[in-house]
UniProtKB/TrEMBL annotation:
<keyword id="KW-0067">ATP-binding</keyword>
<dbReference type="GO" id="GO:0005524">
    <property type="term" value="F:ATP binding"/>
</dbReference>
<feature type="domain" description="ABC transporter">
    <location>
        <begin position="10"/>
        <end position="238"/>
    </location>
</feature>
<keyword id="KW-0813">Transport</keyword>
<dbReference type="InterPro" id="IPR003593">
    <property type="entry name" value="AAA+_ATPase"/>
</dbReference>
<dbReference type="Pfam" id="PF00005">
    <property type="entry name" value="ABC_tran"/>
</dbReference>
<protein>
    <submittedName>
        <fullName>ABC transporter ATP-binding protein</fullName>
    </submittedName>
</protein>
<dbReference type="InterPro" id="IPR017871">
    <property type="entry name" value="ABC_transporter-like_CS"/>
</dbReference>
<keyword id="KW-0547">Nucleotide-binding</keyword>
<comment type="similarity">
    <text>Belongs to the ABC transporter superfamily.</text>
</comment>
<dbReference type="InterPro" id="IPR003439">
    <property type="entry name" value="ABC_transporter-like_ATP-bd"/>
</dbReference>
<dbReference type="InterPro" id="IPR027417">
    <property type="entry name" value="P-loop_NTPase"/>
</dbReference>
Length: 310
């Protein structure tokens, strides 16, 4: 059951896909709840794309069940698909048409979308000032927002975004991240995000599933990861030489890394971190900042055995 007690917009149980006697995906089980952003991470060949294709009905599972908006994908395919909006990497748009014409074209295919709904999603993605311009004049970030508007026309309960920040500059990534969180928080939408950008997922998502070798290895909230007993800690200090001696005494055989001119990084549990901070201050070290560094990446590497991310 969903850990936060909200209804599940997407429920996946025991999903399996075998091709030619080879099992690609096995026993995939998780929920994506209304009003949450759910991250989906895995190394190359882990089964992310296969799982997504089964969820959106592009390939049939060998075994298992998918429910979207309460509808079973096999028994009520059309009803289930009406509950989904999906963008795989860059949205498919007609660049020679305006943003409005693109939305109008897609609305006509859906068959029951009014001009009022088009105006509503345009306001939602903040394209009011450019929606009547040709899409070829849009930035990549604007095209992503138009693609999301297109995916939202049918009032889905679940929005699936595959690598949504691909190609965006840092400002565009930040804007999209904030927009996705707003969709979940204010619109109550369940958002499923597949991405290889660990730091972005950490900032964007409420919960995360890590997949490796076709199996779910871990499902956890970002808070659980951040508050994990073992953390990668980064100190900004002066003088660094004295700080390193103090930290090395605490970590023993553990690795201590140096960054820049005044940063020290080591892996410690919470009790050790508190003790180190006290000793640094007592030793006369100026302690400018203490922060967690890359908790999600550490967990990912630990769980997947160091596999590269997709």
């Amino acid at each position: 059951m969903p850990s936060n007690k909200r209804p599940a917009a997407l429920s996946v149980r025991g999903l399996q896909k075998a091709i030619g006697g080879r099992t690609i995906v096995e026993d995939i089980t998780f929920d994506v709840c209304e009003g949450e952003v759910f991250g989906f991470l895995g190394p190359n060949g882990a089964g992310k794309t296969t799982t997504i294709r089964m969820i959106v009905g592009l390939i049939k599972p060998t075994n298992g069940q998918v429910q979207i908006g309460g509808f079973d994908l096999r028994q009520n395919f059309i009803e289930a698909m009406r509950c989904v909006g999906c963008i795989v990497e860059n949205p498919e748009l007609y660049k020679y048409m305006t943003g409005w014409q693109n939305l109008e074209h897609f609305a006509n295919m859906l068959g029951d979308v009014t001009d009022e709904r088009i105006e509503e999603v345009v306001r939602l993605v903040k394209l009011e000032n450019r929606v009547h311009d040709k899409v070829r004049t849009y930035s990549l970030g604007m095209r992503q927002r138009l693609g999301i508007a297109q995916a939202l026309l049918g009032r889905p309960k679940l929005l699936i975004l595959d690598e949504p920040t691909n190609g965006l500059d840092p400002a565009g990534i930040r804007e999209l991240r904030e927009f996705i969180r707003k969709l979940a928080r204010e619109e109550g939408l369940a958002v499923f995000v597949s991405s290889h950008l660990l730091s972005e997922v950490q900032m964007m998502c409420d919960r995360i599933a890590i997949i490796g070798n076709g199996k779910i290895l871990r499902v956890a909230t970002v808070e659980e990861i951040v508050q994990s007993e073992i953390n990668r800690i980064e100190w900004t200090v002066e003088p660094r030489e004295l700080a390193v001696r103090v930290i090395e005494e605490e970590v023993g055989d553990g690795r201590v890394d140096l960054l820049g001119v005044n940063k020290v990084v080591a892996t410690l549990n919470q009790a050790q971190t508190a003790h180190v901070n006290e000793r640094l201050i007592a030793a006369g070290v100026k302690l400018y900042s203490v922060q967690l560094q890359g908790q999600l990446e550490e967990l990912f590497l630990e769980i997947t055995g160091g596999d590269s991310i997709a």
